[in-house]
Amino acid sequence: MTERARLSARIAAIAESATLKVDAKAKALQAEGRPVISYAAGEPDFATPEHIVEAALAATRDPKNYRYTPAAGLPELREAIAAKTARDSGLEASASQVVVTNGGKQAVYQAFQVLLDPGDEVLVPAPYWTTYPEAIKLAGGTQVDVFAGSDQGYLVTVEQLEAARTERTKVLLFVSPSNPTGAVYPPEQVKAIGEWALEHGIWVVADEIYQNLTYGALDSGVGSAAPRAVSIVEAVPGLADQTILVNGVAKTYAMTGWRLGWMVGPADVIKGAANLQSHLSSNVSNISQRAAIAALAGPQEPVEAMRQAFDRRRRLIVDELSKIDGMIVPVPEGAFYVYPDVTGLLGREWGGVTPTTSLELADLVLEQAEVAAVPGEAFGPSGFLRFSYALGDEPLLEGVQRLQRLFG
Ligand SMILES: Cc1ncc(COP(=O)(O)O)c(C=O)c1O
C-alpha cells in the first residue's frame, strides 16, 4: 500500500489563527491565577445593544425562523444591507447582490474562492490581518506582499502596487481602516489606488468591517466627528463591476459572537458565492439575521457611544505607549488597534533577556509584565506589537504602566 499523508496538503499548510493563539495563552495564564492584562482580542468589550438583543429574543419565539431560508440570506436583511452599503460605501447595489455569511471571515474566504484560480496573484498590503494568507492559499492563490511600514503610516502607494504587479495579478486586497494597524487611507489615496486597479483590470476585495469606527485628529476633542473611511467604490464608481465588499456587524455593533457578515458584489460573483455557500453552510442562523436587521435598520446611537469610548481609550493608549523610549507609535485613525513599531526595543537586554524579534518581545512582555500583545509576525514582518484597546480604561492604563516600568 502506498503511504499516504493523514491530512491533505491543503489543510496541513494552514496555521492556527495567531491572534486567537495569543489570546488563548493569556487566558490560560489568567486561569492559573496570574493577573495578565490582554490586549490580544480583536473584539469590542461592550454588550450588544439592548434593542438588538430584544429583536433576537422575539425571533426565537417566531416559528418562521425555525426553518431553512435561502442560502444567501433573508430578503429583508439583504435589503437592509443594500441600504447600509448605499449609505456608508456609496454603492447602489440591489439586494440580489448581497450574500449573508457566517461572519466577515466567511465572506473573505468565499471572495477568494470565487475569484482565484491556482497561480493567480493577490496583492496584499502588509501588515495584514492573519486570516487573509490562509484564505488566499486555500483558494490556490499566491499572495504577494506589499509592505508599508510606520514611516509611511502603514499606507501603501500606487507606485508600490505597480512595482508588485505582474501578468498574474488578479486581485488587490484593500482594507481601510486596517487590522492590525488602525490606518485609514485618505480619500485621494483611495481614489488613486482605485483608478490604478480599474486601469489594469484588477479586482478589488475591499474589507470594510471597521468602516464605522473612525476617529478625529488628536488635537480635536474626544469623540469629535471623524473623517469617513471612503470606500474604494465610492471613490471610483467604475470599479463596482470588479469589486467585492466584505463587511459585517461584529465590530460596529459589538456582535462578534453572533457570526453575521456579508459580501456585496457584481451579480455573477455573488451568484457563485451563494452557490458555494449553499453546499458549505447554507443560511446563517435566522436569529442572528433578525438581530442584524435590528442593528442595521434600528437606532445608531449605541454605535456612536461605543465609538466615543474607543476614541477616549485610543488617546490614552497612544499617549502612554508614546512615553516608552524605543517605540514608534503612529496614531491610528480607525478600528480599535494601535500598532507600534518596536524595533527600537530589540537587541537590548530587558530583565536578563535580549529579544531579537517581536515574537520574542511578546513572550518577554507576557512573562515579565504579564501583558499580552500580538507580535508583528502574526501579521507579516517582525518588529511590531498589536495592542487592541477594546478593554476597560483601568486595565488599559495599568497594562501600559507595566510596560513603562519594564522598559523604563
Ligand atoms: C479585518 C477583518 N476582517 C474581517 C474580520 C471578520 O470578522 P467576523 O468574522 O467576526 O465578522 C475581522 C475580525 O477580526 C477583521 O479584523
Task: Explain the overall architecture.
- By secondary structure, this protein is α/β, with parallel strands linked by helices.
- It has 2 domains: 9-47 and 302-406, Aspartate Aminotransferase, domain 1 (Alpha-Beta Complex), CATH 3.90.1150; 68-298, Aspartate Aminotransferase, domain 2.
- It is 40% helix and 12% strand.
- The longest helix has 21 residues, at 301-321.
- The radius of gyration is 21 Å and the shape is globular.
- It starts with 8 loop residues before the first helix and ends with a helix.
- The model has no long low-confidence stretch (mean pLDDT 95).
- Bound molecules: pyridoxal-5'-phosphate.
- The site of pyridoxal-5'-phosphate (PLP) has 14 residues, from helix 5.
Summarize this structure as a short list of keywords or feature phrases.
408 residues, 3-stranded antiparallel β-sheet, binds pyridoxal-5'-phosphate, globular, 7-stranded mixed β-sheet, 12 strands, alpha/beta, 12% strand, 2 domains, Aspartate Aminotransferase, domain 1, Aspartate Aminotransferase, domain 2, 14 helices, 40% helix
Going by CATH, the architecture of the largest domain would be 3-Layer(aba) Sandwich
Gap between N and C termini: 62 Å
Question: Which kinds of small molecule does this entry bind, naming each only once?
Answer: pyridoxal-5'-phosphate
CATH level-3 fold name of the largest domain: Aspartate Aminotransferase, domain 2
Please state the average pLDDT score. Answer: 95
Rounded to an integer in angstroms, the radius of gyration calculated over CA atoms is 21 Å
Strand order of the largest sheet: 2-8-7-6-5-3-4
Number of DSSP-assigned strands: 12
Q: Number of DSSP helices? A: 14
Largest beta-sheet characterization: 7 strands, mixed
- Shape field: globular
Instruction: Work out the count of structural domains.
Output: 2
Question: Given the helix and strand composition, which structural class is it?
Answer: alpha/beta
Strand content: 5-15%
